[in-house]
Specification:
Blueprint: H1 2-23, E1 37-38, H2 40-43, E2 56-59, E3 62-65, H3 70-73, H4 88-93, H5 96-102, E4 104-109
Parallel strand pairs: 1-4
Antiparallel strand pairs: 2-3, 3-4
The protein binds protoporphyrin IX containing FE (HEM).
Length: 110
């Protein structure tokens, strides 16, 4: 009888803890909502055509500053076509993980 009582007690304590965890609501403010927001139109300015401006590209909703790799992204570079826009499609095939590891997120795509 004592064993059954202990087992029920332990299970109900664990149930309460895990139950609460599972129902905890997601935070109202997500990381991307506190970053500077860019529209697709605004991103176009940062495609490397203007050497005085940084070069940005968007991947999975975030905007990365890829200026450090400008040899790839400026006009004539192998990946200029990825700059100044949301390039999630091609970057899911090749190169997306390089971008995520190598460059800093500076904004979010609206
Ligand atoms: C859909 C096609 C492709 C996409 C979207 C793509 C994208 C990328 C991206 C974003 C990078 C990282 C550049 C950086 O460091 O900022 C990269 C690196 C690289 N890619 Fe591609 N790539 C593609 C096809 C290819 C092909 C076909 C080749 C070879 C024939 C290639 C060779 C390379 C090499 C060698 C690097 C490393 C460059 C370095 O760090 O020095 N890529 N690629």
């Amino acid at each position: 009888m004592r064993r059954i009582f202990i087992a029920v007690f332990v299970l109900s304590v664990f149930g309460t803890i895990f139950g609460l965890r599972m129902t905890t609501p997601a935070p109202a403010v997500t990381t991307s909502s506190i970053l500077p927001q860019f529209t697709a139109e605004q991103l176009k300015e940062f495609d490397g055509s203007n050497p005085d401006k940084p070069i940005y590209l968007a991947l999975d909703g975030f905007v990365y500053d890829v200026t450090e790799g400008k040899e790839f992204y400026q006009p004539g570079g192998a990946y200029h076509n990825l700059a100044g826009k949301d390039s999630s499609g091609p970057l899911h095939l090749v190169g997306g993980s390089i971008i995520k590891h190598k460059y800093k997120v500076i904004g979010a795509l609206k």
